[in-house]
């Protein structure tokens, strides 16, 4: 290899290393706060397009966002507790899908229009178990503001939402666990799966079209 070619090779190698380092830094930069901000951007986008999307369109958009930003298997396992541990993989999968459907349906109904709402991040802090709390506020032009805190955990190099707390204190995971405790005690995961699927169907007002296409 000539001196010129060697120098060119070294320059190309140095450039490749620099690009790799910058890409890695960018990936690391997409931390808990950036993940929440991205979720808020997607959420506002759906709200702005809510009329043209309709409930079915919003539902499918939120299914994608749930998969992208939330760690639903962990959340469902927390809510169902020992029943999840004892359940067969097939039963777990059915419960996960039912919870995913109901969550997307609730979001599709809750965020069904846009009135100039904006989100702002207030602060980010790490708690004892290593998870991170991202405290935000939903600014509603025609109503009081709502404080929304996201509990985040890192999985590999990806940050996911594992709980949402309203007004800074009300854990939605604990609320769901308490809400479904009796159903789990009476009829186990099968009963909870049926309940969540029924709730999703009721929210969406469909017989089977949306259920069949998810």
What does this structure look like?
β2 and β3 form a beta hairpin. α2 (32-48) runs antiparallel to α3 (50-69) and α6 (89-110) crosses α7 (172-204). Residues 1-29 and 207-214 have low confidence and may be disordered. With 214 residues, the protein is an alpha+beta fold. The longest helix is centred in the last third of the chain and has 33 residues, at 172-204. Strands 1-2-3-4-5 form a 5-stranded antiparallel β-sheet. The chain has 2 domains: 1-30; 32-213, Tgt2/MlaC (Nuclear Transport Factor 2, Chain: A, Roll), CATH 3.10.450.710. The protein is globular and about 45 Å long. The chain has 8 helices and 5 strands; from the N terminus they run ααααααβββββαα.
Based on the model shown, name its key terms:
5 strands, Nuclear Transport Factor 2, Chain: A, disordered C terminus, alpha+beta, 2 domains, 214 residues, five-stranded antiparallel beta sheet
């Amino acid at each position: 290899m000539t001196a010129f070619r060697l120098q060119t090779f070294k320059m190309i190698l140095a450039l490749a290393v620099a690009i790799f380092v910058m890409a890695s830094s960018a990936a690391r930069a997409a931390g808990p706060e950036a993940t929440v901000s991205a979720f808020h951007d997607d959420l506002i986008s759906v709200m702005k397009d809510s009329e043209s999307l309709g409930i079915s369109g919003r539902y499918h958009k939120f299914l994608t966002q749930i998969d992208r930003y939330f760690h639903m298997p962990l959340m469902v396992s927390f809510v169902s507790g020992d029943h999840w541990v004892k359940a067969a993989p097939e039963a777990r999968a059915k419960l996960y899908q039912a919870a995913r459907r109901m969550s997307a349906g609730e979001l599709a109904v809750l965020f069904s229009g846009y009135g100039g709402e904006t989100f702002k991040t207030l602060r980010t802090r790490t708690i004892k178990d290593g998870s991170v709390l991202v405290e935000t506020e939903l600014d509603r032009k025609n109503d009081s503001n709502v404080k929304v805190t996201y509990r985040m955990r890192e999985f590999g190099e990806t940050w996911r939402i594992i709980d949402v707390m309203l007004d800074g204190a009300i854990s939605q995971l604990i609320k769901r666990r308490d809400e479904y405790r009796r159903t789990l005690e009476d009829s186990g995961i099968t009963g909870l799966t049926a309940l969540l699927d029924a709730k999703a169907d009721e929210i969406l007002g469909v017989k089977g079209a949306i259920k069949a296409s998810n």
